[in-house]
Amino acid sequence: MLDTKINHQLVEILQTDLLKWFEKAKRDLPFRRTRDPYFIWISEIMAQQTQIDTLIPFYNRFIDSFPTVFSLALAPVDEVIKAWEGLGYYSRARNLHQAARIIVADYDGLMPDNFAELIKLPGIGPYTGGAIASIAFNEPVSAVDGNVLRVISRFCNSFADIGDAKTKKQMTRWIESILPEAAGDFNEALMELGALICTPQSPKCLLCPIRSGCQSHTAGTTGQLPVKKKKTKQLTRKMEVGIVTQNDCLFFVRRPDAGLLSGMWSFPIVETTVGNGQDIKKKLGENFPELNEPIFIGTSRHVFSHIIWEMSVYRFNLDSMVSETASHPYFISALGAPQSDHQTAFKALPQIDDLALPVAFSKLLALLKNAD
Ligand code: SF4
Q: How would you classify this enzyme at the top EC level (predicted)?
């Protein structure tokens, strides 16, 4: 249970001193020079899994490619995913694209100007909706992210588990009950304090503008807060990956439209219990009726938020088999260009960039290089 029993005087410190500090200390960020909800939306989605300082070049590149909601809506989804390359969690790019299309189709290309409408759009949850509504439209709603949960837990000396959805709801309601008129600035100030001063490790309490009201600082409990109980362990999955090569080209498949890395290009991959390359060989049989025996080239591990892939990687070289099976549609003719369709592609190494290959797979290219 969130403990926010702090008196009016302390609330005033939080409101007034924090805003004064923010006015002077806030970082000059490209999306802070505007109140345009489109730019704020893009930056907030990027900031969900990426540090602000890291995302700036990605943000600038994305905005250069898609300067308006119309340009985003009209772009092919592959182009949007390509522009998102390097940021990970690609479902965010898909949701942006889908939401842009809805905004153009249903809202005449204007971002909805209130929290209730914003959170109907794909990829916009209570945090992002609160951030856009308060920063762009100054609607009195909160935007509670990890930084805010930490700052408020420490300021109020609350030992409630911040991983518990109930705590987040209570904190959201409590912040909304104390929001000053400049709601957007206040939300941003809380986030900025969490990012710059009230950091997870070694908070800079001596520089903190709200230290005089901070209850954990007074109680000496800052190091114990916030409380976040451990989540259940990530599942580990044993996988086999097949890298099919021919004429210096590599074979790729598009992943299903739902689930992990949905709709992205990858090397063929299957879950396995044995791990001797036969499961991936069987899977590849869907595209290549005849294949040589798998050649093991190494292992790789990739950690997602809820799952870990332990991958054994096998190479299948088709060069020696062309003459027997050259009529198969996936084989590259000796003179012709690599064939591809919407779901599969043969690509030469320099063309791989076009595919926006997820890191889980692009890092396997080093194994292939070492095997040559
Ligand atoms: S005094 Fe320290 S613990 Fe309290 S809000 Fe400031 S930085 Fe965080």
A: hydrolase
- 238-250 pLDDT, tens per residue? 999 999 998 888 9
Total count of residues recorded for the chain: 372
Which residue's structure tokens are 């198969």? 328
264 & 176 share domain: no
For residue 8, the CA-to-ligand 1 centroid distance in Å is 18
> 30-65: buried (b, 16+ CB within 10 Å) or exposed (e) per residue?
ebbeeeebbbbbbbbbbbbebebeebbebbeebbee
CA of 205 to the centre of ligand 1 (A): 5
CA of 2 to the centre of ligand 1 (A): 17
Ligand 1 contact, 18 CB (< 6 A)? no
- Same domain for 207 and 316, yes or no, is no
Write the burial class of residue 316 (CB in 10 Å: 0-12 exposed, 13-18 middle, 19+ buried). buried
pLDDT, tens only, 130-151? 999 999 999 999 999 999 999 9
Q: Provide the whole-model pTM.
A: 0.73
Q: Is the pLDDT of residue 64 over 50?
A: yes
Tell the residue nearest (CA) to atom 1 of ligand 1. Answer: 211
Does the residue 178 lie in any domain?
A: yes
- Nearest-atom number in ligand 1 for the CA of 204 is 7
Residues annotated as catalytic are 44
Mutate which of 199, 212, 214 to test ligand 1's pocket (most atoms within 8 Å of Cβ)? 214
Please state, as a whole number, how many other Cβ atoms lie within 10 Å of the Cβ of residue 215.
20
Distance (Å, rounded) from C-alpha 121 to C-alpha 130? Answer: 13
Q: How far apart are CA 313 and CA 10, in angstroms?
A: 58
